Every structure is written in C-alpha cells, then in structure tokens.
Amino acid sequence: MLKGIDQRLSAELVHVLMLMGHGDELVICDVNHPAATIAAKTTYGRVIDFAGCDILTATGAILSLMPLDTFVPAPVSRMQVVGDAAKVLPSFSALQVLCSEMEGRDVEMQALERFAFYEAAKRAFCIIRTADSGPYGCFILKKGVVDLAPLR
User: CB 3: neighbour CB atoms within 10 A?
Assistant: First the structure.
C-alpha cells in the first residue's frame, strides 16, 4: 500500500492510469458489458477487473487520481437506453453529479447510441469492469492534464 491512494485501486489499475496521457479514454462498465471482447481491441488489450465495487465507488476512486479533460465539451460519455434514447436513468445523473463534485466544476456527459458506444470503447486505452449489475452502467472517461510543479 501507498499513502494517499484509495486502497480499492489495484496496482495494475494505478499502473494503467499512469500509462495514460491526456486525451486518452477509459471505459468503466458493469458486469453485463462485453468487456473482454472490446478490451482485446483497446490499447491495453485486456480487461482490468475492479471487483467488489459499483460504478460510483470505482469512478470516485479513479477520479481521486485522474482528472477529466477540460479541453472538450463532454469528457464523459454514456450509452443510450436502447429504444428510448432520451431516457435518463438515475445512474446517469448520479455519475454526472459525482464527476462534477470530484472535478469541482460542472462536467457534461454525452449520450452515444449502443453500437457507437461500442466502437468508441474499442478506441479507449482500457476497459475497467466493476461488479455493478447495471443496467446501462457503461461510461467513457477522458483523461485531462495533471498540473504538476516543475522538477527540481
């Protein structure tokens, strides 16, 4: 263990977050998402399991280390509800509120049609599968820039 890092974050997940650069994206998903199939096409190439956590808990832990992009209008994407694209599930609103709280600013979320979401997920850096049962617990988070002091 290390100081200041949420104990739910595995060494593999912290390593992957460190490998990502600004503008890279990660998918955080529920157990119903075709995570292994899509992960094979990502930069990292395999699923990272975040066992024992729901989407909100896992996202909060991730955002404790990773900022969201400020250079795009919507640094978070979600999957639309099939057959009712305008429907907003409570989990969508809860994740948007969490992201805004963690960032200290209003964070916009865009909705993608199911298959457009899958295509976007294939271009992500990695897929993180939680124990969340969903439904529609599939989100893409775009990494922002970490403002660091210069090395001395």
Answer: 4
